[in-house]
Design brief:
45% of the residues are buried. The chain is of the alpha/beta class. It contains eight helices and eleven strands. A hairpin with a 2-residue loop joins strand 2 (14-24) and strand 3 (27-36). It has helices spanning 61-69, 102-114, 127-138, 159-175, 188-193, 217-232, 267-273, 298-315, and strands at residues 6-7, 14-24, 27-36, 46-51, 72-78, 120-125, 145-149, 180-181, 215-216, 240-245, 281-286. The chain has a single domain (6-315), classed as Rossmann fold (3-Layer(aba) Sandwich). Helix 3 crosses helix 6. Residues 44-247 form the Serine aminopeptidase S33 domain. InterPro entries: AB_hydrolase_fold (IPR029058), Hydrolase_4 (IPR022742), MAG_DAG_Lipase (IPR051044). This is Serine aminopeptidase S33 domain-containing protein.
Length: 317
């Protein structure tokens, strides 16, 4: 008998299900499926599975409420070695091929289907956007739509690092997957989000720290191979919505504009590469949004949700 859903840290409206996976090079593995328990507004439009980004996990209660209000059963997945699924013997985010996540997604979708949901929307943010796009390309016909929130389609690095140093490190990752590399992200993004600093959100800083988790050459190689697939073209047959900030900004020291710009990725890369996902891509810039569009200030994310559900109504019904 499989274990039942258990209480979740997000409170009584949420519950979680541990999805054990086969061991890998670090030992035992699990993913964790989170569901929003209240029934969606009738008539139900289907179910959505959301996948978080890098240095991240699912904590966005508002997202679950929004989907339920618009008729969707809501589920989110903490991938192996992230958030709820991170085990003491594991290094966060440590994978050597993005296909390692297929087992996590397969198990989550099996549970969602077992609950009677057949009309499925897949959604991913940042690294989760890259992972879900590649997964959808390998699973034609399963999803009614794909929603990507600032997908990680290219490294946001200066030309020498992006074209020379990163590919070299990625190649080294095949022989030396545990070679440590700097993640290269300042702590200003986390400062802009968490209520203990300059933001409005409350989340577990052990699972989403301001000083992001380190990465290794194996992980970078996996990311670069996935991004190379996107550049070649995924030919996704389903409708795809790509939401992104209106502009990018940068800098090591805090600036007020960081509250209304993407300071993680270059939105020009997203605009350039998103059409290579397939022939039915809708690109939608969200002015004044941050990297995770749905963590922007209230009026900005309200507009983003309105755009999202208008698009879903048109594409999914």
């Amino acid at each position: 008998m499989k274990p039942p859903y258990q209480p979740d840290p997000l409170g009584p409206d949420f519950s979680q299900l541990v999805l054990p996976q086969l061991p890998d090079y670090e030992g035992p593995i699990q993913a964790v499926l989170v569901r929003y328990r209240p029934e969606p507004a009738a008539p139900a439009a289907g179910a959505v599975l959301y996948v978080h980004g890098f240095n991240d996990y699912f904590f966005q209660r508002e997202m679950a409420v929004q989907y339920a209000t618009h008729g969707y059963h809501f589920f989110a997945l903490d991938l192996r070695k992230y958030g709820r699924a991170l085990l003491p013997h594991q290094r966060p985010n440590n994978v050597r091929n993005l296909r390692e996540y297929d087992a996590d997604l397969d198990a989550a979708l099996a549970e969602i289907r077992a609950a009677g949901h057949t009309r499925l929307v897949l959604s991913g943010h940042s690294t989760g956007g890259l992972i879900t796009a590649l997964y959808a390309a390998r699973q034609p016909g399963i999803f009614a739509a794909l929603v990507l929130n600032s997908p990680f389609l290219a490294l946001n690095q200066p030309w020498p690092r992006r074209r020379l140093m990163a590919p070299l490190a990625g190649m080294l990752g095949r022989a030396l997957p545990n070679l440590p590399l700097p993640a290269g992200l300042p702590d200003t993004y986390g400062q802009s989000l968490h209520q203990a600093y300059r933001g409005e959100w409350d989340y577990n800083l052990a699972w989403k720290p301001n000083h992001v988790f380190g990465v290794n050459a194996g992980w970078l190689g996996a990311i670069l191979r996935g991004q190379r697939q996107v550049r070649r073209g995924l030919e996704l047959p389903l409708p795809v919505l790509v939401l992104h900030a209106g502009r990018s900004a940068g800098g090591q020291r805090w600036q007020e504009e960081f509250r209304r710009a993407d300071i993680v990725l270059n939105v020009a890369d997203i605009r350039r590469l998103a059409p290579r996902l397939g022939p039915h891509v809708t690109l939608q810039a969200v002015p004044d949004a941050v990297h995770d569009v749905f963590l922007s200030v209230a009026e900005v994310r309200a507009g983003a949700y309105a755009q999202l559900f208008r698009w879903l109504a048109e594409q999914v019904g």
